[in-house]
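DATA SHEET
Item: assembly model
Revision: 1
Owner: S.N.
Input lines:
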Amino acid sequence: MTDSVDDTIDAFRARVARGECEELTWWHACQARIEAREAGVQAWEYLMPATSTAILPGTGQRLRGVPVGIKDIIDTAEMPTTWGTGGYLVSPEAVVDAAVVTLLKRQGAMPLGKTVSTEFAYFTPGKTRNPQDLSRTPGGSSSGSAAAVAAGMVPLALGTQTAGSIIRPASYCGVFGFKPTVNTVSFSGIKAFAPSMDTLGWFARHIEDICTTFTALTRAESIEALPDLGGIRVGLRSLPGDRPLDAGVAQALSNTARHLEQAGARVSALPLDPRYDDLVAHHQVVLAYEAAQSLASEFQQHGEEMGARLVELIEEGLATSYAEYRASLLAAEECRQALSRVFADEVDVILAASAPGVAPPGLDATGDPVYCRAWTLLGVPCLNLPLNTGQEGLPVGVQLIADRWQDERLLSIARTLVPPAG
Amino acid sequence: MTDSVDDTIDAFRARVARGECEELTWWHACQARIEAREAGVQAWEYLMPATSTAILPGTGQRLRGVPVGIKDIIDTAEMPTTWGTGGYLVSPEAVVDAAVVTLLKRQGAMPLGKTVSTEFAYFTPGKTRNPQDLSRTPGGSSSGSAAAVAAGMVPLALGTQTAGSIIRPASYCGVFGFKPTVNTVSFSGIKAFAPSMDTLGWFARHIEDICTTFTALTRAESIEALPDLGGIRVGLRSLPGDRPLDAGVAQALSNTARHLEQAGARVSALPLDPRYDDLVAHHQVVLAYEAAQSLASEFQQHGEEMGARLVELIEEGLATSYAEYRASLLAAEECRQALSRVFADEVDVILAASAPGVAPPGLDATGDPVYCRAWTLLGVPCLNLPLNTGQEGLPVGVQLIADRWQDERLLSIARTLVPPAG
């Protein structure tokens, strides 16, 4: 079933139910795909041995037989964790799996390996290359998860986002990436970076699988497409407001706006208060202050081995006063409440750029999360839609954004917009 | 210096500066006090060997030479962690210290041992007894930290609160206990229970030391007493509203109200919206749903060894739908915003009961956190004031509460109210 690595999760389960393939079929197909492509893509920090008993699917049903990649800042009891350090900090095995790993296993998913993360999910790149063009970055920090899903090595992979670490690599690699409302899935057993913003999310090639995984992890009702998007109000917005848009990004936004309108939605420009433009700067203050706290032990013991940009951020955090930090949090809270009123009164979802353009050339940087920072600071759910291509045929994503805890509505709207798989 | 175990941190540092004692003097005095009282109180899960090099104070100044107790759900690289499991889950040493342990060490504090926690900081009691009456509970979940501070074994100890785990044991043991605004100090390396509410805080015998520790951990400006409390508005409130108050608690509230008025404050009853009375129930929904997620791995592997009440909570969480969870979070958010308006327009701080009475007799339960649940759900800072005694001369605390991120103002008001030590 080399073709069926592109099944949706539900289609695979239906094939198993009809006796057309085995529960371990997907696992073996993924291993074959990894064998074919890993030398180029280098998405994996560690792979489960093919003979491991851990490949036996669990007792749950929703994700039964689904191979999944686990970002390497997430604790695993049966695989090592290196937090993207290249080896200066390693845990051969955690005392217990991170909570989300057990939640996945409970539903029958099978962790296939640890995917490459940048150093502690910040900017120092790992070895991973963009599967669409091996000379380009896959984005970060969830580099290996986005690349593994894009290369068809795995149908599902976990990522985390504190600035733009899910939406940006999803945009660069051309896959769906979903960052739910902050704190939707427990961060227990995942290395903290800036705890008020750290959010667990996931990548998939099909919107259906993004929805299935949301249901599996939260135990929400299953998310279905609407008949059409009649009555749905979409606000078009690019943060920060004063940056000129890349032509490919502008094209992706207008294409998507047109598709939304064709499905019945009403799209209009969304003017926001100028205070929103300050959120990028407030995000940086919160990021630096909290990272300097959360990584205090790692900095104390391994500061000399750390990448220059991480050291710079921690030092910036150590120079940030509590008063500045508090002021940025309070400014964010004001915008969060104001944005909730916008969502209540004016729009159902916001359409915005995911990244400043296609994946930049080179492997020594992971691109700019600037279009994600404000949304992450506000804690709202964001979904990258991989429906457009830009310069040199490379993917250009756009994101749909909803108010906090409107994840189901957001996913339902996206599922209506995106043509069904297969 | 057997007497000087009761110094404030600043007084001790001044004595060291004047050459009246050594940097390690307090450490040795604490060890002597532990030797004298630990057989009865049983506050410690693990004690650093007296000869350990870890007792050498760090390079920082604010907490230089201060022995500190670390709650046993907090990772330590040089001491084992058991999470109050009585041994069914043990980590001999963490890969790195929890962030807060490094933040303390950086300021010169010296972790002296791990203090007893209830099982994963929920309700299954550990071995600790109340130093004021060994036949009674010290409260939970930060049982050992509150008891160790109350027994003079250590001037400072870390606790965590997700329901009433700092304020209640502080009230029962008769010490100051401070829960700052949620997410003030990073939870990195601390076992999560319900991440949207889990809050790190600390216990001390002196309000000055609560303030010094706040400054040391956040790098806020130092917190001083005001000239008096003229102009300060205090709202008197007991949540949930329909519970009859214990006579000792009522007396403690009216005594404290009188002291506040004597210092110049204006105290008046604070009528709150009836929706606040539902917060206790919403807290339970959030607690159960998030605990079932966060402890998924521990439940999977050790469910049969877990205490009955924890299993019951996790099963309640597994039976809680995402829709119920979301509804409780949104109800809390409404009250949080409404309470911010109350703090902006009507009162500076709220005065409320810490616990339903003195420490209950017996060691098979840790008392009721009902008076803390709403405040913890709202994420507001709470300080237990140990200024009153009730039935049989046992301590009865009251708490002062401020709006989120008004921690400095809250501590400054408390410092003005409480007579200076020594």
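QC remark: Residues 322-345 of chain B form the longest helix (24 residues).
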